[in-house]
Write a sequence for this structure.
């Protein structure tokens, strides 16, 4: 059974694409028709691609690897932050810094600097500084947190990226490709679906559409994490039984 139904996709306006004049020909297989100069996405294709994406992202989460959520467009930010936090995954919603993944070591230095400023504030070091110096550090910390706060706990390059609007986030898409990371993306009719491994044909401008697709992937990640936890618990239980049996035999 599909995780998301056709009726849900219709209600969320997932089928509304861009003007015909703005289309990317590579999206032709996913376009159902043109109406009043606007392309309409084939939702049967969306259901199929979404289910494939959900299965793949679930397996990534089940393996214990991280998925980085990427969405810097205004209508997607809050949705992505809430979804990523609910499954303890990193996110980027302000600005994609060039080299965020391809030059990850440098980015980690900036994150460490931000964390050091936090530590100074907590251990009382701030109290021994001049007011101006404290203000400068606070401003620097806020600036770093705005851009890097969502990946502060990311200690290594993620296994995959989920990207909303692959055209807007072309730098993130390019870095994922260069590093051979698995990429998932909401792809509207003005974008090239070949740029990501798992293209989900969908309206990437509507809040309802973004919320529905993001929610389906978030739930799949949650399923993968739950299965991973169950598997670990079962292994511990089996190990405990084996230990108990060995003691009994002894």
């Amino acid at each position: 059974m599909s995780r998301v139904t056709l009726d849900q996709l219709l209600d969320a306006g997932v089928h509304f694409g861009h003007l015909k004049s703005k289309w990317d020909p590579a999206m032709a297989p996913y376009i159902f028709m043109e109406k009043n100069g606007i392309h309409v996405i084939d939702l049967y294709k969306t259901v199929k691609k979404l289910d494939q994406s959900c299965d793949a992202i679930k397996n990534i989460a089940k393996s214990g690897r991280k998925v980085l959520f990427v969405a810097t467009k205004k209508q997607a930010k809050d949705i992505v932050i809430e979804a990523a936090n609910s499954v303890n995954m990193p996110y980027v919603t302000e600005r994609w810094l060039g080299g965020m993944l391809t030059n990850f070591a440098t980015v980690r230095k900036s994150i460490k600097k931000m964390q050091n400023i936090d530590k100074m504030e907590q251990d009382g070091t701030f109290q021994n500084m001049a007011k101006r110096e404290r203000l400068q550090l606070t401003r620097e910390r806020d600036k770093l947190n705005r851009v890097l706060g969502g990946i502060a706990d990311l200690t290594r390059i993620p296994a995959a990226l989920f990207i909303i609007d692959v055209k807007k986030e072309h730098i993130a898409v390019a870095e994922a490709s260069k590093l051979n990371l698995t990429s998932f993306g909401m792809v509207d009719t003005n974008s090239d679906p070949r740029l990501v491994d798992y293209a989900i044909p969908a309206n990437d401008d509507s809040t309802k559409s973004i919320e529905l697709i993001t929610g389906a992937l978030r739930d799949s990640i949650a399923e993968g994490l739950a299965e991973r936890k169950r598997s670990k618990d079962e292994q511990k239980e089996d190990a405990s039984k084996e230990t108990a049996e060995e003691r009994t035999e002894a």
